[in-house]
Amino acid sequence: MRDDELGEFAGRVEHVSWQEMLPESDFVSLHVPASADTHHLVDAAALTAMKPTAILVNTARGPVVDETALVAALRDGTIAGAGLDVYENEPALAPGLAELPNTVLLPHVGSATVSVRSEMARLCAENAVAIARGGLAPHTVDPDALNHR
């Protein structure tokens, strides 16, 4: 986020690198897309860099976290705990993950709130109406793909 986008938080937020942030954070909450750049963003090295009292939260995409490394880190106390709503090889879990007492595991329901699901339904309806009228869906993920039909 750029400084001019911080609004009321300007002056209270400090930009630091991933490597600087990990050892300073009590909670690391992931909000990134799945891509080659984010695959195993949280690996054994990242987990080792975190505080032993830190909690990792992944509601982004499963492959962002190396679950095998996470299980090891949770078992040996490298970090204190983890909360996951997505999994590396969904629906399968890494061996040992479900048995750990320092995890909270959800069945990929992070978006299951009335407001989020209502907005999702509204966007779908808006797209369907636009297409039915012969137009382009206003929320097309990849408009260029339509040129290759």
What sort of overall outline do the alpha carbons produce when their principal axes are compared? Answer: globular
Q: Which range best describes the helical content: under 10%, 10-25%, 25-40%, 40-55%, 55-70% or over 70%?
A: 25-40%
What is the H level of CATH, i.e. the homologous superfamily of the largest domain? NAD(P)-binding Rossmann-like Domain
Number of domains: 2
By DSSP (H or I, 4+ residues per run), the number of helices equals 4
CATH architecture field of the largest domain: 3-Layer(aba) Sandwich
What is the name of the CATH topology of the largest domain? Answer: Rossmann fold
Strand line-up in the sheet with most strands: 1-2-3-4
Major sheet description? 4 strands, parallel
The count of DSSP E runs of length 2 or more, i.e. the number of strands, is: 4
Instruction: Kindly estimate the percentage of residues that lie in beta strands according to DSSP.
Output: 5-15%
The overall pLDDT, averaged over residues, is: 90
Q: What is the CA–CA distance across the termini?
A: 36 Å
Rg calculated over all Cα atoms: 19 Å
Q: In sequence order, what are the helices and strands, one letter per element?
A: HEHEHEEH
| Structural class designation | alpha/beta
Task: Describe what you observe in this structure.
This protein is of the alpha/beta class. It folds into two domains: 3-105, NAD(P)-binding Rossmann-like Domain (Rossmann fold, 3-Layer(aba) Sandwich), CATH 3.40.50; 114-148, no CATH class. Helix content is 26%, strand content 10%. It is built from four helices and four strands. The chain has helices spanning 18-21, 44-49, 67-76, 114-132, and strands spanning 27-30, 55-58, 81-84, 103-105. The protein has a four-stranded parallel beta sheet with strand order 1-2-3-4, with no helix packed on it. The longest helix is centred in the last third of the chain and has 19 residues, at 114-132. The chain is globular. The model has no long low-confidence stretch (mean pLDDT 90).
